[in-house]
Design brief:
The chain contains eight helices and 21 strands. The protein has helices at 7-15, 99-107, 142-154, 176-184, 213-219, 234-247, 302-308, 344-348, and strands at 18-19, 27-37, 40-47, 51-52, 60-67, 70-77, 88-93, 113-120, 133-138, 161-167, 189-195, 207-208, 227-231, 254-256, 283-287, 292-296, 326-331, 334-336, 351-353, 357-359, 363-366. The protein starts with 6 loop residues before the first helix and ends with a strand.
Length: 367
Amino acid sequence: MSGGATWDAELSAADEPSLWDPDRDDRLVCRAVRQETHDVKTFVFSGRSPCRFRFTPGQFITLDLPIDGATVNRCYTIASSAARPHRIAITVKRVPGGLASNWLHDHMVPGRELRATGPMGDFTPAGRPLTKLLFLSAGSGITPLMSMARTLDDLALERDLLFVHAARTPADIIFRAELDVLARGGTGVRLAHLCEATGADGQWPGYTGRLSLPMLRLIAPDLLDRDLYVCGPAPFMAAARAMALEAGVDPSRYHEESFSFEDLPGDAPPAPTETEPAAVSGFTVEFTKSGRTITCGPDTPILTAAAAAGLRLPSSCSRGLCGTCKSRLLSGQVAMNHGGGIRQREIDQGQILLCCSRPVSDLVIER
C-alpha cells in the first residue's frame, strides 16, 4: 500500500470485488516472486484493481510474454488454491534453452504486468464425487495437483489423499516443506517422495529410483480403490498410464493432464526449403517467417498439416484452449472452432489458432 492508502480502504475494496474478466481488463500484475528450488520460481499475480479469480483446481492460464519484440503465448497451470480467489500463482521451472521459462525467471519482477487469458482446462476433480485420491506427479507437473491439495486443505474437506511426487534429487522437490506440513497435520494426507538420486550428501530416507508398478503397489496397496490424477513430463505420464493399465485400474478413475508443460527451446523456424509437394488435394498455406509452403486439406487443422510436413510450430493443448499456437492470418479464410484460447478482439484483428483452424481458401500466415 502506498500513496495514502489505509487498511480500511484496502479491505473495503477487497470485500466484494468483481470477478476477473479478461475481456474487460486482461492484465495481471505480478505481486511476488518466490524461489522454490534452485531452478523453480513461483509468480503470484492479481488484477490491477481488486478482483476475484474463479477457477477449479487443475486449470491453467495463458500468458502473453513480450520476448525480443514479439508476443509469445505460453500456458501455465495454476498452482494456488481455488479457495483463495484474490491471488493467482504459477510455478515455473527454468528449462535450459527454454524461451518462456528463462524470460520469466530473468525478467518477471513484482509490479510488472502481463496480458493473460483463462482460466481454462478440464483436468480437475471439480464436479466429481470426493473419493480416495492418488496424486502422481513428477517435476513441475506437481503444480495442478498442488492446487488440488491446497484447495482441499483450505476447504477443510474430509479426504483420503495419497500424494506421490518424483524428482531428480531431494533438492529438486518442489513445495517439499509445505507438503511435509500437510502430511504431518493429521488431515488425511499421506506423502511419498521419490528421488532418482540421493543428492550430494547421500542422505535420503525416502524412495529412490524411478517409479515402477511394484513400488507403486508398495506405496498404495489400495491402488484400485483410488481415483488417480497424473501430471508430469510425457515419459512419466506414459509410464504411469502403462502401470495403471497393467494393474487393472478402472479407466474412468484415471485422469491425466493432456498437454505438455515442457518449455519450447525457442520459436526459431527451420531453414527454408522448396515448396512442399501436395500429398493430398487441398489449399496452399504459406508461412511467411519460415519461408515454407505446405498443402492442407479442408478437413485438416493447419497445425496437423504443418506437423506432417515437418514444420515445428509452438503448440500445447491442440484443442483451442491455451492459445500457444496463436498466429496472424495475413490473407485467406479459415473455419475456426476454438475452446476459449483466443479473445474476440484478437479474432477481429486477424488472429487464429492453428490447432483448430481449417482452411477455406489458400492462406498466408505470419509464422
